[in-house]
Here is the input.
Amino acid sequence: MTRLFKVWMVWGMMILVGSVVSFADEAAGRIADTGFGSFKLDEKGTLRQFNLSHSKTVYEPTTWRPNEGDEVKVAFTATPNKRGDVVLAVDKLTMVKAGPSTIANLTSPVIVEIVETGSSGVKVKLPKGQIVKFDFGRNTKRLPAGWVMAVGEKAKITFEAKVNRFTNRVGYAAEQIEKQP
Here is the structure.
C-alpha cells in the first residue's frame, strides 16, 4: 500500500511540475540594456524588463551571458514578488544572434594580443577586438619556460570556460600560454 501511494505521489508531482512549466510565455527581440540580475528587451519598440535567477535561469549556450545588442529568445513566467508587483522571471534564455561586444562560442586554443599582465591573470585582446581576462591557476604552463609576458606580444592560450558558482558569470581559466612569433 505505501509503495503504491508513493508511486501515485511521484506521478502527481510530475504532472504538476509539467503543467507549471507549460504555462511559460515566450518573447523575442534585441537586448536594449543590462543591469544586475536583469535586462530590458526591445520587442518591436516595446521595452520590457526581465529578471534573471541564479538558480532557475537556463542559458543557451551555457557559457554565454546577455549583453546589450544580442538578439535573444526568452521563455518566462510572470510571478508576483514580495511587494506584490508582477515581475517577468526568465526560465530559459537562448541567444539567437550575438551582438557586437558579445563573446560567444569562444573555442580553445585562441591566438590573442596581450593588453595587460598581472600575477593572477592576463588581459588580452581577442581577434574580434574584445578584451577578456584569463585567470592563472596553480598548474598554468608558460611556454617557453620562464617567459615573462609583455604588453603587445602575441600568445596562444589554451583555456577552459567556467561559470562562477557565486556570481554566475563566465570566467576563463588559462591552462597553457604559449608565446607566438
